[in-house]
Amino acid sequence: MKLSERMTRLGTESAFKVLAQAQALEAKGMDVIHLEIGEPDFITPKNVCDAATKALGEGYTHYCNSQGIAPLRAEIAKEMEKTRGVSVDPERVIVTPGAKPIVFYSILALLEKGDEAIYPDPLYPIYESMINFTGAKAVPIPLREELDFRFDVDELKSKVTPRTKLIIVNSPHNPTGGMLEKDDIRFIADIAREYNITVLSDEVYEDIIYEGEHYSIASLPSMLDRTILLSGFSKTYAMTGWRLGYAVMPPELIEPVVRLIVNSVSCTPPFIQHAGIEALNGPQDSVSKMVNEFKKRRDLIVEGLNQIPGISCLRPKGAFYVFPNIKKLGVDCERLADYLLNEAGVATLPGTHFGKYGKGHLRLSYATSLENIKKALERISTIVAKIAA
Ligand SMILES: Cc1ncc(COP(=O)(O)O)c(C=O)c1O
Questions:
Q1: Which amino acids bring their CB within 6 angstroms of ligand 1?
Q2: What is the rounded average pLDDT of the residues 349-378?
Q3: Which of 20, 35, 307, 332 is most enclosed, with most CB atoms within 10 A?
Q4: Residue 13 Cα: closest atom of ligand 1
């Protein structure tokens, strides 16, 4: 069978591949600590599960509005007003099965050969995969470790050309846990206005923040009309398996993106959307409990990694990842990740799976218990001592 040429340009997300490798080792009896997959290990709050069950019982089990059911879109619009101070018409809201399809649909709707898209590197790999898929030019802007994994503003400006159509922003950031500052966001907004560029602002980790505040580019003057604001329920409410995400988009993008939904999944299951309404409206204490727990884990993993000779690790302000620098170990990050998995039963991801500027790093997700983190640190320390010997 000969596949289409475009398939050669579509990348992937290696966390799922490493998860499968780790599970294969577990099936052979190995004890593996999972630091590879990016999902909260908490259970979805009970009130949200109950809302889904109730909706199933009430018969919300059929096709529904492809753009998302009206009451959920109204809740999301209210949430935008509450969290970002922007007044959003629910007609600008689109609900999808997970937040990931928003990246897929909006990039497909916007970009083509001849266009350029700027994105942070290291990055959530789906951005680059999708830009390449459309035939547009992928233009990485390096996130600098010495800037707490932020970008250099002059460097960003130097990447803008008359063909730049899209800038992708992701804060808090996967894979580094870094956060952009208000001035960084303002700078991007100024560029977007001056050069008439659309911004895809991936804010899926907006509620998982330990220091500082979340700034949404959409709340800056006139930015709502040029921003695709992506967020969702997967991370905030530990709902990764439910597949529920959303975006607020400029009106011109709504019809084409809904058309892509109709051509692919038709709609997002309505009983899941009812659970989403409860997640937004119900008590939020599970979110703060989860974030407090993540903070303890972050502190433990950052301190532990910094005590291992040859490894240095910044203290991230958000999300649930660390991105330690392993360059002084003198071993390639892909080899180290392989070695850690196969010899020590610690599943991590090499930084290069998040773009070329991830070289010399590992990504560790600390969405696992303090006990597992302690065990993982001991195992990493033993392997590093072996490498040094
Ligand atoms: C930066 C970023 N954006 C989007 C997503 C997609 O989220 P969802 O699971 O809701 O599709 C992820 C998931 O890991 C992510 O890390």
A1: 38, 98-100, 124, 170, 174, 202, 204, 232, 234, 240, 245
A2: 97
A3: 35
A4: 14
